[in-house]
# Entry
Amino acid sequence: MPEIDPLCGFCTIVAGEDAAARVVYRDDDVVAFFPLEPATRGHTLVVPRRHVSDVWGLRESEGAALSAATLKVAHAIRTAVDPDGLNIIQSNGQAATQTVPHVHVHVVPRFGGDRMPELWPPKQPSNESALDRTAAAIRCGLGNAPTADVTPEDRRQHLSFIQAVITRMSQSSSSAKTWLLPIVTAAYGFAIAKDAPAIALLGVGAIVIFGLLDANYLKQEREFRRLYDKVAHGGGIPSFSMNPTLAAPAPGVRKNYWPDWSDIKSWAIAPVYGPMVIAGLVISLQNWTIRDLSWMEAFTRLSIYSCLPG
# Structure
């Protein structure tokens, strides 16, 4: 049974639960059907049965089945509607106009004067050196592309490498909390004992720094957990790759070392560091208030004494 997302409209069609869908082809690997708003007569979508959001998540066998079915549909369309031409379009990510997060291939028959827009922008001047660098980077990436000869032992070893990073991030998070506790205790204790609000604020600063560091550890742990899951399920990750952006939920995501808001407000960060920050601010404000009251009392006494006779 392929993986299905109950919230995905394409998965509903794959499962045969959309009676209105015009399905034209179905086999063990793919399903082909008309979109709700065809661009031209005969416009057909070809999708894998397993729910996978983008081409980077396709298994090699799924990619082969999708390509074979697309070719079969293209021949059938030529026989059925006799188009003047044909577009085969596959988009990934919002920037590429993907609107449904389930891999799909558009097979679009073209006719003279149809309503399809131009697909390519006007010609722009080329930067030859940039093209050379990009070509070299792609060649390097193809050398690390996933292959069909990955053995179960290779995958287990890959998973063990990723798990080691996850464990290290978890241990670093624990160490951050362990180091912070005596620092905060000393700072707050000194601030209370010596009426030194500035020291309490230094303690608050230390908490913020350690909190951001800890949130970053959590962010890295979550990213490597996603990478672990994708490798475990054969998600098309290059062998022994340790790049967690390859498992990002959206394609094209760049590495960001700053923690996200979801990391900061998680149960492992906000409930731990938040109360300590509040306590430091309270101690600082109380010390400033006491100091202000002391100055006020001294000023009051001086005023009274200056008004007394003699």
